[in-house]
Amino acid sequence: MNVLIIGVNGMFGEECTRLLSRKHSISGCDLQEKLEYDADVNYCSMDITDQKALLATIANINPEIVINCAAYTDVDGSEINRELARKVNVGGVGNILKALSGSQTKLIHISTDYVFDGSQGPYDEDQPTKAVNYYGRTKLEGEELIRKSEIPWAIVRTNVLFGNTTTQKASFVRWVIDKLQRFETISVVNDQFGNPTWTYGLAEVMERIIDLNATGLFHYAGKDYVSRFEFALKIAGVFGLDPMLIRKTTTRALNQKAPRPYKAGLTCKKAEKQLKVPFYSIIESLNKMKGNA
Ligand SMILES: NC(=O)c1ccc[n+]([C@@H]2O[C@H](COP(=O)([O-])OP(=O)(O)OC[C@H]3O[C@@H](n4cnc5c(N)ncnc54)[C@H](OP(=O)(O)O)[C@@H]3O)[C@@H](O)[C@H]2O)c1
To answer: In angstroms, what is the span from residue 156 Cα to ligand 1's centroid?
Structure first.
């Protein structure tokens, strides 16, 4: 299949490219001038907020599948740069839909558990959404545009992504490893919960959605539901780093710019049943990541 990956230089875009290029022909675009890693990709530089450029790119590539991994992903930054977050996460999605309208090209879009308020997670696909921060609101609006559209689509919500990619723009794991390797103390919250997700597993979901021609909303996440503090301890354990450098804190004490959902995370029964994809534990994923590093 002719697959276009938008946001191909991002953490998940890269993982997706590595897995899907085994079977599919990959075109990719992102903001940067060139592809930032070594792979067989027909690359072009493109900003999804530029409607004209996006229309021309999609007309030129004529993809059968578009996977949208591009987003403004800085959760705290989204509180300050509201206009930009909205322009990318809502306007950009709208532009992709315009470029695909009237075609049978399927759009697979990545979304987040931050569309929920975190009062009673982990969440399944049928639970009501209510974002507590601006990033979550923009991601939810992007989802809503897709759900109203007439083209074939699949939306996959995930959370706390980590992987072994060259680009680690939004990775908690990379941050923990870097700090502990420099023997720096870190403060990590023990009251925000989720199920950290290995990017490789999420890329397998993309492959299954393409193979099965599946549509609709899916949740996909790792097997273990943990606090960020517990996650950091597991990272230290697998990478042989000093756990005593990890201090427990609370969301209130950390005072992040964007409010966070406390009990976030996802339940993934639908993906398990319909897509029959594997799910990975944190330790298993981190060990594989370490082996590949
Ligand atoms: N990381 C997580 O923990 C997590 C959790 C849940 C859901 N998600 C979702 O998963 C998807 C992939 O996330 P990720 O972690 O791979 O993010 P990432 O590493 O930040 O990658 C996103 C990519 O999109 C690019 N981009 C930003 N604005 C763009 C624009 N206007 N036009 C074209 N490209 C643009 C970014 O370029 P720049 O870096 O130059 O801005 C970056 O290369 C996103 O939809 C995100 O919301 C991520």
So the answer is: 14
